[in-house]
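Input chain follows. Return C-alpha cells only.
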Amino acid sequence: MINTARKFLLTLCAVALALPFAGASERAETLRAINWVENPTNHTRPGSRGELGPYQFLPQTWRLHTRTPFRQAVVREQADAVAVRHYEWIADGLREAGIDPNPFNIALAWNCGLGAVRSGRVPAVSYAYAERVQNLVESQRAHQQAALAASIPEVAAKPALPDATDEGAPLFVFNPSRNAAPKFVVSLGEQLYEQPIPVIFTEKTPRASDLAQARSDESSTPTLQVEGKPMFTLGSVAAPRFALIH
C-alpha cells in the first residue's frame, strides 16, 4: 500500500513539473510559426500599416506590453520578449472567455484581435492565417518526434544459449535468466587409461591366499608378471564431468 501511494505521488509530481514545460514548448512552437507566416525573412522594413519586426507588431500592440521605443521591434531579443507577453495576454483572455488557448485560436487573435475571437466575429482571412500557423506547429512536432525516434538506439537481440546436446558444447552451462540456484551432477566419463591397468610391484612375499585370489582374477583384470614377483593392481581412474540440471 505504501509503495502504491509513493508511486502515485511521484507520478503526480512528474505530471505537475511537466505541465509548465509542455506549455512553454507549445508557446515556442506557436510563436515560431507566427514568425514564419508574418515575416519569414525577418526583414526590417515597415509594413503597409506600419508593422515592424519578426512578428509584424503594430505600434499600439507594441506599446501595450512595453515602454521600449517601437523602433526596437526589429531587434530580435526585444521582439521575442514582447511576443511572449502578447502570447500570454491573448491566452489569458481566451481562458476568461472559456476558449481553448490552442495554437489555432492564438493565431486567430494574433491576426484579427482578441475581441473579434471572443465575440465570434472572425473574418475568413484570419481563419486561413490560423490554419497556416496550425499546420506549421504540427510540422514542427512531427519533425521533433522523428528526430527523437532516430536518436533511440536499437536494442540488440539476446544471444541464444548453446544447446548442451550439440557437439563441442561446454559441459557446464549457466542460464542467468533463471532465478533458481544452479544444481550440479557429477558423472564419470571414459577411463583415462585405455591400456592395461598399471601394476605396482613390492618386495614382500605374497601369502598363498593372495596368490590364489590373483590367479582367479586373471581373466577379468589384466596384470603383468615380472620375474615372479608379487604385485597388486590400482583401480581405474575416471575424470569427473559437470552438467547443470534444468
